[in-house]
Each structure stands twice: as C-alpha cells, then as structure tokens.
Amino acid sequence: MRIVFAGTPEFAVPSLRAACGKAEVVAVYTQPDRPAGRGRGLQASPVKQEALARGIPVLQPETLKSQVSRDALRALKPDLMVVVAYGLLLPQKILDIPEEGCWNVHASLLPRWRGAAPIQRAIEAGDAETGVCLMQMEKGLDTGPVLLSQSLAIGEQETGGQLHDRLAELGAQVLADGLGLLRAGIRPVPRPQPAMGVTYAHKLDKAEAKLDWSQPAAVLARRVRAFNPWPVAEAVLAGERLRIHGAVAIDAPAGAAPGTVLAAGRDGIDVACGEGALRIRVLQRDGGKAITAADWLNARRDLAAP
C-alpha cells in the first residue's frame, strides 16, 4: 500500500512512524521551512526532520490549489493520503486523487472541537475527557465521517503540553489500527458525525493569555493549564508582569478585590479572583526562567509572609 503522509508539527511525528510501520510511505508533504529561534534562521518542521532521517522524499508546496500540485501528487500514485496537523487545506481535487481517499488524525472526539486547537480548548472548557478520531476527509473543516476513535480522561492538573503528548501517541495507535484493517482488506465503516454537539476550537492567540482577575479562579486555573507550554498565561501581580506556568483554584473569603494578594508563602501566592482565589505555584519573570512562587518571593520581601 502506497501512502503519502502530510503533517508538520511534533504532534504528527508518531503518526508518521506508525504509517511507516504499516505501509510504504512514498512521500511526505509538510509546511515550508519557517524562520525560528533567536537567529530567525529557516528551520525544518519536525515531520520533515523525521522524513529525511528515514530517507523519505519531502515536498513543501505553498499551496495545493494549483495544477502543478495536483500533477505532483498524482505522479506519486498514492493508494491513501494520511493527514495529521498539516496546516494546509486540501481542495476537493486533491482529496479525489488517492484511491482510498484521505484520512485525518484529529485530536478530539468529533464533532466536539473541530478546528485548530482542540487539545487546549478541551482543557480550557473543563472537559473531563477527550480523544482521537480517524476521519475520512471531505471538503468541510473536520466534518467528515469518523472511521475509528479512542477516548481518554483528562487529568485534573494536566497541561496542554502533557495532553498533547498523550494524544499524539494515541493518534498514532488509532492510525495504525486503521491501516492494519485496510491492509487486511477490511475498510473501516465511516460513521457520519452527529449534527448536535458541534464546537469549534479556534486557533490560539497570545492576547488570550492575559489573565483577568475578575473572572472565576476555576476558569483561570484551566486557562493556565491549557496555555502551557504556549502561549503561557500572563498577569500583572503586585505591579510586576509575570508568566504563570502552574496554578490551582482554591476557596477564598468573599470581599477582597480581584487581583489582591491574599497570602504569599511556601505553598504559593493566593490572588483574589471574581470567585475564589488562584494559588500561583510556578511563574516566570521577564527575561528569566520558570521558578517556584517561593523562589520569586525571596526577591519580593514586600510580599512574603512574616
């Protein structure tokens, strides 16, 4: 079975490895190299790096809408195209080229959290579980029928980065299961997504990372977890702008104005919110590294408990 794989970030790498273990990956599509790092030099995507290490040809078109793109894909004679966090929309004329169509590994239990940031939005919304769907692609955004799925519980203190890694491995397993069935001559049965329960996971924006103390502490704690490791929540605390890497919601006496420091000690810094308080445990000063709240208090004697 000849597979063309399309993916870009680290999330897609385990799925590429799974595809290589089940079929012949004849080419990999990934986003063009982008400037990264302090020197802003061009950097290959994680998927490109994995493909080159395996000796797989890499294609990096800016678009898939041209006749040239269609001809290039057609020349590869793919039986199936597997797409995992690629970053480019696939036009219908591309979807129609592989004999078995195009499969997508998506990090949510569709139709919940269609779109760009399903992992972070699930945590931010307080979902108890999420999962991975293997979907038959169609022109709409994550609207295609589901072939296989697996769910998992979201940990109470799990961050976006931790859930990302678990879902990446789960996605690879679901893909491997689907490819195994196809190799055995068994086509997974497509199940149309229900019309009810559709939500959209809009792309993360750095502006969202600014915490508003007037909101409930539970909402802010989820946002801190969801936005770790990017874009990382930030807030002004005692006149200093800080990035918040770890925090939990706790009960607090009513009456304190949002943003007021209620307590500061070894366990963390308790800040009054619209409801309850946020106990900050890990933070980062401008130009510094992530440190415990206790270490920060060593430099802020004005806040430390007597």
From TrEMBL:
Domain Formyl transferase N-terminal, residue spans: 2-176
Catalytic EC class: transferase
UniProt-annotated binding residues for (6S)-5,6,7,8-tetrahydrofolate: S108, L109, L110, P111
EC number: 2.1.2.9
Residue ranges annotated for the Formyl transferase C-terminal domain, each copy included: 203-300
Keyword vocabulary terms for this entry: Protein biosynthesis, Transferase
InterPro entries per record: Fmt, Formyl_trans_C, Formyl_trans_C_sf, Formyl_transf_N, Formyl_transf_N_sf, Formyl_transferase-like_C_sf, GART_AS, Met-tRNA-FMT_C
Keyword Cell membrane: no
GO molecular function, one term: methionyl-tRNA formyltransferase activity
Function, as annotated: Attaches a formyl group to the free amino group of methionyl-tRNA(fMet). The formyl group appears to play a dual role in the initiator identity of N-formylmethionyl-tRNA by promoting its recognition by IF2 and preventing the misappropriation of this tRNA by the elongation apparatus.
Protein name per Swiss-Prot or TrEMBL: Methionyl-tRNA formyltransferase
Species name: Luteimonas colneyensis
Phylogenetic lineage: Bacteria, Pseudomonadati, Pseudomonadota, Gammaproteobacteria, Lysobacterales
Gene name as annotated: fmt
